[in-house]
Fold this protein.
Amino acid sequence: MADRSRWDPEMAAFTAAAEAEAAKYPPVKVELPLEPHRRINDLLGLRTASGGPVMAETTERWIAARGRRIFCRVYKPATDGKRPTLVYFHGGGWVWANVDTHDRIVREYAAAGDVAVVSVDYALSPEAKFPQALEECAAVVRWIAENGADWGLDGSRILLGGDSAGGNLALGAALLLRDTAGPALRGILANYPVSDSRFDTPSYEEFGGGGYGLNRERMAFYWSVYAAHEADRLNPLAAPLRADLRGMPPVCVLLAELDVLRSEGEALVEKLRASGVDVETRTFQGVVHGFLRATASVSKAREAVATAGAWMKRVG
C-alpha cells in the first residue's frame, strides 16, 4: 500500500471504504474483453451516484449523430426561465462509466452553477476508436446550439465540461468546434483532464507506480484502446496539450495533487495562459484522481464543485 501520510484524511477514509467494497467482487482488470470488468467497475461507480441536489426536472433524450442515437440526460435545477447549458462528458478512461455513474456530480454542478446540464453517453472504446467519441460530443453540442430550445435549453450560452477522459473530450470538442465554424462556447470546465499521451512527467514518476488509484499501467491501456495508432495519440484533438490553443474560450482547470495527470494539467494551464486564454485553476491538496465523485464524503470535493459553480456563474 502506498504511503498515505500526504492524503487528506477524508480522502483516505473514502478510498479505504471503496477498496473494502471492491474486495467483495472479482478484480477489475484492464484487459480485453472489457465487458465483465465494465459490469463490476460501473456497479461500484454507482456507489457515488446517489444523494445530492434534487433537480426540478430531469428528462431523457436522444440525438441522432455519427450513425448512432446518442443518449443524453438533461438536468434542470429550476424551470423558471433559461440558464446557461453545461454539456458534460463523463470520465472513465474512454472505456468505463456512463451517465448513471456520474448522475450525482452533474446534479452538483447544476445546483452550484445554476446551469442546465446535458450529460452525454458517448460511445466507449475499444468498440469505438478515436475520433468517434470526440465527434459525437461535438455533434451533440452543435445540435444543442441549433435545437436546444426544443428541450427548453438556451443554446446560445453553452459550456463544456468533463472529468479525466471526459475533460479530454471537452477540450478536444472545443478545439474541433473552434476549427469548424462553432458554435462559440462560454467556457470549458476541465477536471483533472487527460491532456497528453506521455507517461514520463513528474507526476507519472511520482504516482504512476500504483497506490494512488489511476496509474501508468491503466493510462497506457486506456490510450492503447482509445487511440490504437501512435499517430492518433499525437493528434492535438486527442492530446490537447499539443494543440494551438489560441482562440479557446475561458477554461477552468481543477487538479488533484496526488494524481498522475497533475503535471500535464499544469502544463496545459501554462500553455493556455501563454496563448492568451483566460484560465482559472486550482490544485486540491491531499486528494487523488477521481476525488470529485466523493462529494458526499470529502469536503475538498465539495470545495471543488463550489469553485466550478462560481466560475460558471461568472462566464456563463
